[in-house]
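1st attempt posting a full record on here, be nice pls
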Amino acid sequence: MAYLGTPSATAEIIRKYDFTFQKRYGQNFLVDANILEKIIRSAGITKEDCVIEIGPGIGTMTQYLAESAKQVIAVEIDKNLMPILKETLLAYDNVSVLNEDILKVDICKIAEEKNGGNPVKVVANLPYYITTPIIMGLFESHVPLSSVTVMVQKEVADRMQTGPGSKDYGALSLAVQYYARPEIIMNVPSTCFMPKPAVGSSVICLTRYLDPPVKTRDEIKMFSIIKAAFNQRRKTLANSLANSPFIHDSERKPIKLTRQQICEALGQMGLSHTIRGEVLTLKQFASLSDLLSQ
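the predicted structure (as tokens):
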């Protein structure tokens, strides 16, 4: 089977199997060999690596991964793609295909069974509509990861990398930057996909930190404070947190914070009680969470 990284090869296999793109799965197949090769290089895939690919589609990037990695586990939700993947990946004995929903897969178990519990690398052309749940699920479940290299909507990639004060800065920015070092590798035009998406795309590499760049007593509480801060981002931080029902402790029990408590904590940090959450750094959110835990 020839490589699929061209429009003609992709169109041929789609015609052969009379495949219909499923909008609900956000299917846009990459058809540019140069982009595919750059993704593999950026992910630093070697013969020592066990790679989990999310959404292999017809197996285009899977072929490139299989050539470079020790082992590839491809997780695909669309059962209609199983016969195609059986053909396109027939030549590779180091690829396993799971017909599963990645949000329901126990990736820790896969890493244990397939890679002895050692860190895996995740590579994917992610469906835009579930990009955030997938990435946060990988980090929050503490899957043993060394890196996540993904194609995402350009706007989402910008959000992951940006800092305080930007209109794109939010809970996703802080969460990603707590767990990993984000680096946008390249922007990818819609012409590199079949069918063409309505938005621009970017490849971003998230290199997992061995230890988070900031310390906090209660990670769950810190992130619930962050989410509450951006839930009503135009309000002051004190008002956003005091009115939020979504703040929880490490046992996920709800906590009610008073405006006075929040203002006192901000004062101890040398911050105004009228400050908005969008200007706080990750370190400041960690400090605020710790002060509010006392």
